[in-house]
Amino acid sequence: MAKALIFDLDGTLVDSAPDLNAVANRLLAERGLEPIDLATLTGFIGHGIPQTVKWIFQHLDVAMSDEQLAEAADRFIEIYSANPAELSIVYPGAFAALGELSEKGHKLAICTNKAETVAIKVVKQLGLDKYMDALVGGGRTAQKKPHPAPLFACADDMKVATDQIIYIGDSETDAATAVAANIPFVLYTEGYRKQPPEALKHDALFDDFAELPGIIGKLESR
Q1: Are residues 170 and 190 both part of a single domain?
Q2: Is the pLDDT of residue 37 over 70?
Q3: Would you call 19 a catalytic residue per the annotation?
Q4: Structural domain tally of the chain?
Q5: What angle do CA 32, 33, 35 make, to 5 degrees?
Q6: Reported pTM
Q7: How far apart are the C-alpha atoms of 212 and 127, rounded to whole Å?
C-alpha cells in the first residue's frame, strides 16, 4: 500500500507570507503602529496566529496583556479570514507533484498550525482541496505542532496507521513534529526555515517539487 503523505501548509505548499504580512500591517495601522517588513513577519510564521501576533508586538516592544493579545489575535483572524489568499501562491510544481502522487495511490492531507477555518479557506481558494483527503488545522487538537497530536488526527481522518505516514514540511517545527511522531520527514528547502538544512533531522530534502514523487518512491522502498 502506498504511504499516506501529510503536508505542512505555509512555506511548504503555499507561500502565504505576503498575505500574512499585509494583515499584520493592517492590524498595526489600526493601532497607530508602524508596519513590519515581509522578512520579519516571515520569521514569525509556523506556530499559529496567536503566537505570530505575540511575536509581532514583542518585536515592536509593545507591552500587551494576555487579554489584549487574545483580542489582537481575534482581530487578525477576522481580517485574514475575509480574503486569506489574495497574495498567496502555490509553490511552482506543487500541483503537478500532488497530481502524480495521487495517481500513484497516495492519500494526501494537510496538517497546519493555522486556524483550521482559515486553512480550509486558503486551500479551497488556491485549488488545493481537490487533492486532499483530510485537513487538520489549529484548534482541532489541544496541542499544536511540534506536538504529534495534529499529525495523528490527520492519520485518523485518513484512516491510516501512523507507521504508514510520511510528513513533508519546511521548518524547524515540522522537523520536530516528525521526530515526535517517529515518522519519516521530507524537508522542502524553499520555505520558511531559519536554520541550515543539515541542522534539521530529515530523511530526504528537495528544492523542486518535480523531485518529490521520486523521493517518496525511494523512501517507500527502504
Answers
A1: yes
A2: yes
A3: no
A4: 2
A5: 130
A6: 0.94
A7: 19
- Find the distance separating the first CA and the last CA of the chain, reported in whole Å: 14
State yes or no: pLDDT of 1 exceeds 70.
no
114-129 pLDDT per residue, tens: 989 999 999 999 999 9
What is the rounded CA–CA span in Å between residue 173 and residue 147?
9
What residue has cell string 507507521? 163
What one-letter code names the amino acid at 182?
Answer: N
Q: Could you list the residue range(s) of the whole structural domain that residue 154 is in? A: 4-15+88-220
Nearest CA-CA partner of 151 in 132, 127, 131, 177: 177
pLDDT digits (tens, 9 = 90+) for 49-71: 999 999 999 999 999 999 999 99
Rounded Cα–Cα distance for residues 120 and 191 (Å): 20
Active-site entry in 8, 19, 170, 174: 8
Distance separating alpha carbons of residues 143 and 150, to the nearest angstrom: 7
